[in-house]
């Protein structure tokens, strides 16, 4: 439970990828948040944790500003990389996905991350996705290539409030480079535009598939998030979020699919977190340079120290996980704990205002952490309200 704080904080401002500006993440009535969830293998590395901790901070600020929050996360439990890993290790893909999903949720809980109201697996939404793709075909925003179905970017741009580049602001050569790296198939013969993404993959021997209105097959990637957001939240979302590796093609086309289906934008604000590196490169499953939350906690590292190490970084920066960073966070946690153990005076000091002021400015957790450092280094015992503010806004219980 997130403790309630006296009064209300202001609505946070965060950076919007589409307009490249700092804008108020102001809910219309309820805050509707969709954050792209994991593809369940190699969970949960520090990069995942950093992304979900950034949106955890945003949720805490919305709650503090007096808003109700509706939060949804998908689980990409059927997709090429997951199937490839399952095949390579000889584990059934369903077993791999179930085990890793479970581990991810345990890790999030240990880090004190507020869970989504709904975790929705791609495999739970096959019928809804097939129906959405059928509607895109009917509207002329999709076309078949053999057994597969692609999104027609040009047709969708002509008939909906979306155009290629609306979310990502990228030029075409960069887009072509990124789709090739990130699961697209620009070379596939028969496509109307090399950038058009797959909406539906017809059944292949040895791959999972489902019987649907489209025939047998399985969902593409971007349509999964578009459909889940539409089913579980009110659109436009207050914020659509994820790591910056998802700006293009994933969020560009999730927005495109949604606009083509509903005539409205997916989100009012597109937010992206920086990428965490390890040993000089982006921490990623494909490179295998992973630091897992569960390996750290199994070896006796306190989850609160991991949380503090992440919060001491700016969420939009790319940064590198190091042993020194963790050691520093452990020291910081020890110093905050010693401060808290000095006893409690009643009431508050200026801590709550200081934390609010730092965090509403593009989730400036390093400034918030520095504000606590300054108080912990001073001589006096904390006020009860200081510790409540740290617990509610930074998720660190002292
Ligand atoms: N299932 C898709 C999203 S629909 C996916 O990207 N899964 S993932 O497991 O690869 O990543 C889960 C989340 O963590 C995504 O929001 C992704 O952008 C983010 N992420 C992945 N690697 C890093 C990293 N090194 N640093 C920060 N965030 C990362
Ligand atoms: Zn997604």
How many domains, as an integer? 2
> In whole angstroms, how far apart are the ends?
15 Å
The parts where pLDDT drops under 50 for at least 5 residues are none
User: Could you give the order of the helices and strands?
Assistant: EEEHEHHEHEEHHEEEHEHEEEHHEHHHH
* CATH architectural grouping of the largest domain: 3-Layer(aba) Sandwich
Taking all Cα atoms into account, the compactness measure Rg is: 22 Å
Average predicted confidence as pLDDT: 96
The molecules bound to the chains, other than polymers, are: 5'-O-(N-(L-cysteinyl)-sulfamoyl)adenosine, zinc ion
Helix % is 40-55%
Task: Describe this protein's structure.
Helix 10 packs across helix 11 (323-340). The chain is an alpha/beta fold. It is globular. The protein has a five-stranded parallel sheet with strand order 5-4-3-11-12, with helices on both faces. The chain has a five-stranded antiparallel sheet with strand order 6-7-8-10-9. The model has no long low-confidence stretch (mean pLDDT 96). It contains 14 helices and 15 strands. It has two domains: 13-273, Rossmann fold (3-Layer(aba) Sandwich), CATH 3.40.50; 281-394, Anticodon-binding domain of a subclass of class I aminoacyl-tRNA synthetases (Four Helix Bundle (Hemerythrin (Met), subunit A), Up-down Bundle), CATH 1.20.120. Strand 11 (239-243), helix 8 and strand 12 form a beta-alpha-beta unit. It is 43% helix and 15% strand. The protein binds 5'-O-(N-(L-cysteinyl)-sulfamoyl)adenosine and zinc ion. Residues 36-39, 47-48, 50-51, 74, 76, 225, 242-243, 245-246, 273, 275-276, 282-284 line the site of 5'-O-(N-(L-cysteinyl)-sulfamoyl)adenosine. 5'-O-(N-(L-cysteinyl)-sulfamoyl)adenosine binds next to helix 1 and strand 11.
